[in-house]
């Protein structure tokens, strides 16, 4: 079954301690919830452990050995991540807590200073709450206009409407590169080019694309890109805001405090240079180091290989699910789709499906997946979502399909 | 697979005994669990002594939410309003006869929350109605 | 030497892997930089490792086993921390990245909605940049007045001036419970009572006090308390904003995104209840769990015991340093002071002192310690700072003093 | 303890050869490292061919910053301005003869930054003057 898979899947699986776990008295775990958060390979855990056990120290201002080691490891991670996404310099890589903070940072600094009453921001109907609520908050504060690119019944963005919206002279287009529910991979490069043509900046929510596809900010020409380590085999508590250096330089600082300053008097401060200007207080040091190790792990596997593996999986899963009557998968056909399978069952509610699958060791998610408006669009209160990553197998898809069939029988 | 879903839950979900609305009613309340879209309305009639004579629920949602509503209604019929106000999380868990994690607990407790908010005549249902300890 | 120390110091030291380290070819590490960040006991590292290896999952919305385990661990940690600081409920414990973010959160939510042009905020001259810059930023935006409680030559707050400032009707008094340079422990309870008397709220920067002293928010009657896990044997990337429930309920949300909402449509959202309202996006899950383990560790040792041990150390250190001519320690006498020893040497610059001590395995910090205005107050460009924690010994104070004497000879 | 502080550093710190100011001068610049308070001013005189004939530094700070200023001045005397503009981080490290971590590197490079900003006639000194690779 694994013949078409271009990398050593068993080897990869053995790198992830959690995947060896059994739950409910000996049922092996089948983890199909990587869209929510990915499992971590041993190398990431080791990198953080090494820091804590050997070099644990605060960074940047220290001259003692531990502080220098910690600083080198943390800033080395930033370099590694900068290279992973094709940034021009590590100064364009701002460490934040997660994708959500990255987007809020842009809204609260760039948005607050650059957007005026009546300015238009274009979003889409398939956004995660993290790329909706910050703009709603800013819109309420500043009197912005928000417009939304509709989602077609097939789960694609309606790009004709996007073109019309662009004619209204937006200041910003903010959209997800890959939907965490539909799996839709949006044509980011073309959408960004069109935004630039219309004089707008483009912010890409890369929470799902950076973990699953090769993403190059220079190729995309993205102005901002937000992503989270925990969704790409890295630790919780850290993510990145990428921004073009000139834009970041022109933005006011975000939070005030240690490290983001060059000089402070009682009543005034001068901001530090990039990237520190946006990183106030003691950063997530161990997490930055773990994020670097995560990116190194993905580099070793190769993002092209990750993408191909997931394509194999999702094609098979779509075929397999098409055979189960009463089950509806939402989202586009495989060629426009990452390895996310959100579905409904005629007979059973998503929460019951997820809970009953859990009894079989299968971890899937049920609910609105932080995309309530998208569910509203499809008139669904909730869906069950199975999502796949580099460590998942075709056999696990079979187990999932069998589990769904079993639930169906229970509720028949 | 089905140890958590005792037969009675699936049964009551598929074929509830107390589904409907009552008009007129003495108490009514409706609430939803926005996380999963579960929605429950409960109508209650009581006599002058405060004894519950009739009750019915409507709404939609998962098996746990709907079955627990049905079982809850069954259990409050003939009880005094004041006693029902005192019902707790544990009473619902006893009715269902299964263990539940924090997320599913919300599904299970929705109907009790709705019933109590109705009986107390509240404008809004609070989690504190069904949860005495620190909640997640 | 350890006879007066009421706990098993060798046992404690053996809990901390980093303290077993040797640097520079066999010189044992003497870590005297806990004010910057503390070392971590094995139990904290194990708690995080367990999460990543067994229960790694996103929290709050998941019904599968891993998600439930992770949620229980994360929220259990919140309970543990709430109890540690004497909060009324865990809803008053908001997880943030660090002390800095906690203070910025208050400035950007409570401050932005409650403070008007001309309103007075009282700070002190001994604040860390983290409790200065956020208020400077807000003052610039809103036209606030900032006034500062002066620091006496002894390194104490001039409370007579504080009384005068209170007569001007401040809206907020924000001050550090313990200075990270002078070591001064400010009379927080009295200062808060006076603030309340004057109709002001009180925010306490507990970054240094919560790790080193018993701190009870109910006893203090603090309105807000900010602290960081990494300074109290916990992980990087997580800290807490404590706030009184009624205040937190009245504040608008901070960042927008997943988890902080109850309901979202394309154009509107309803905020979640506490504490989630202030925690947007995937939180620092492993770090929250590690923070819980850190607090559990400190509870086992006992904060009273920690404080007494540090008192023993700092008394001895002050005596020992008084014998070295040409060395000046800044800050008050031991009875007003935590275990922080910042000093200057006539002959050598702080950076040179720190670097030469590092050659002896002694990790101390040199610079302005994120308190430039305080250094300005004492007309010092920088100081060398040794700081102590529950795992430091009297012998280490001797090594430090010998090291300083050696540096002195080199520069003589 | 003193392997990092070669004798020459302590010596030049305690007893510098080129401390002072030049008035008039052809080039001058002053900057500080706000992190540690190190401060350096350098004055330079050059002849018509662009050869540096005299130079002096003033300021205060740690041994590394002051000694490297003194050693740098010694090394640029008699050199052409254009050649000095090309000096790099490595040249300073060679002068000092020790290895330095990122924080102390800033101390060591302050004087070169000041000299180059002066010779280029810049309004502000940038780290890019002394650091070709990605900086911390
Ligand atoms: C008194 C004080 N306040 C605030 C901070 C900032 O803490 P953090 O860097 O963890 O945000 C520190 C840490 O250096 C401190 O000592
Ligand atoms: C598309 C998308 N955007 C944003 C987010 C938010 O990521 P985080 O919770 O790490 O901030 C997610 C994660 O669920 C996502 O899938």
From TrEMBL, chains B, D:
Top-level taxonomic group: Bacteria
Residue ranges crossing the lipid bilayer per the database entry: none
A Gene Ontology BP annotation from the UniProt entry: iron-sulfur cluster assembly
One term of GO molecular function: iron ion binding
Domain NIF system FeS cluster assembly NifU N-terminal: 4-120
Pfam family, one: NifU_N
The protein's name: Fe-S cluster protein
Organism: Levilinea saccharolytica
